[in-house]
Amino acid sequence: MFQYITRRLLLFVPTLLGVSIIIFLLVRLVPGDIAQILVFDAGNLPQAEVQRQIAQIREELGLNEPLALQYVKWIGGIFTGDFGFSYWEKRPVAEILADRFPRSLELAFLTMVITLLFSVPLGVISAVRQNTWADYLCRVIAIAGLSLPLFLSGILILYLLIAWFEWLPPLEYYDFFENPMGNLSQLIWPAIAQALYIAAPIMRLTRSQMLDVIREDYVRTARAKGLSRTTVIYGHALRNALLPVVTFIGWWGGRLLGGIVIMEIIFGVPGMGTSLISAVNSRDYPTVQAIVFLLAMVFLTINLLIDLLYAVLDPRIRYS
Questions:
Q1: What is the Cα–Cα distance from 280 to 284, expressed in whole angstroms?
Q2: How confident is the model at residue 299 (pLDDT cuts 50, 70, 90)?
Q3: In sequence order, what DSSP letters do the residues of 50-107 get, joined into one string?
Q4: Tens-place pLDDT, residues 26-65
Q5: Are 119 and 286 in contact (CB under 8 A)?
Q6: How far, in Å, are 45, 207, 215 from residue 201 at the CA level?
Q7: How far apart are CA 93 and CA 103, in angstroms?
Q8: Which residues pair with 85 in a beta bridge?
Q9: Which end of the chain has less Cβ packing within 10 Å, N or C?
Q10: Are 34 and 285 in contact (CB under 8 A)?
């Protein structure tokens, strides 16, 4: 196990380097020039002065340097903790990440907690009570969740909150440690909206896997030995049925990160998603690169943890 973890961690560096190159090149392909945006934002200036200031800004920001040199400086700074300087917000990108990343992380954590609390138990109930009203109800909920796009579920929940409870997303963000109830009231609704979208396929997969497992010989043997129904279902069947579910949850980790961007915009949560969209619109290259790079690192970490979780769920798996 230790050797496997070491190999996976060593693969992190070349993988992140490859991802960083793709991120860097894609950001440079975005139309627009940050120097022009900064100059035009300053107001009406004579054409000669505009060109002079554009050239000066490009020189100050290092945009006139070769792309290879820009990349080396950027990636070298990241590995030393320097994510660059935000052209638009006029502060280090590291400060933006330290301010916004915990908020997005809290939203992602809350989303996954709600998702797992509902999707796996409902999937088990649907399988154990196959072809009953409980099974039909769970299947209807799953199909509805699969049919509803993520952005639409967020908009519908926001509309219902406004129409029924006259609730609007607050303009001010509440820190969890300063105002826990205010913080949860802001994040619980986008978390529920995204959890509905993620829980539907997990519920269906859990049901499908449980139906296969409970027909296996070892499950019938456990029942014949006189084990309780709860022990058979949750102690034997569910543990083996969860392996494909865990794989699917890891794969959905990337979609979870993308969904957070959408939910933060709809509900006005000042997290990584809103910062990313703002940085893209303003061509703030260092901020865009740092946020996407950090999200890629989180995704790779999730996949590593999923691989290690296999050995916990199934002792027969050995990493040698």
A1: 6
A2: confident
A3: HHHHHHHHHHHHTTTS-HHHHHHHHHHHHTTT---B-TTT-SBHHHHHHHHHHHHHHH
A4: 888 877 667 777 666 555 666 777 777 778 777 777 777 8
A5: no
A6: 55, 10, 22
A7: 16
A8: 92
A9: C
A10: yes
How far is residue 297's CA from residue 4's CA, in Å, rounded to a whole number?
Answer: 19
**How far, rounded to the nearest angstrom, does the alpha carbon of residue 135 sit from its chain's CA centroid?**
30
Query: What are 176's two structure tokens?
Result: 């969890």
Task: Tell me the chain's radius of gyration from C-alpha atoms.
Answer: 24
Name which of 66, 98, 23, 69 is nearest 286 in CA terms: 23
CA pair distance 136, 130, nearest whole angstrom: 8
For the chain, the structural domain boundaries read 2-78, 102-313
Alpha helices, H only, 166-284: 180-213, 217-224, 229-230, 238-267, 272-281
In the structure encoding, which two tokens stand for residue 95, read together?
Answer: 């400060």
Residue 10: both structure tokens together:
């060593």
pTM confidence score: 0.80
Tokens of 131: 């072809």
User: Angle at Cα 249 formed by Cα 215 and Cα 25, nearest 5°?
Assistant: 145
Model confidence over 222-242: pLDDT tens digits? 888 887 877 888 877 887 888
Query: Angle, to 10 degrees, between the axis of helix 238-267 and the axis of helix 285-313?
Result: 160
Structure tokens at 195: 């959890």
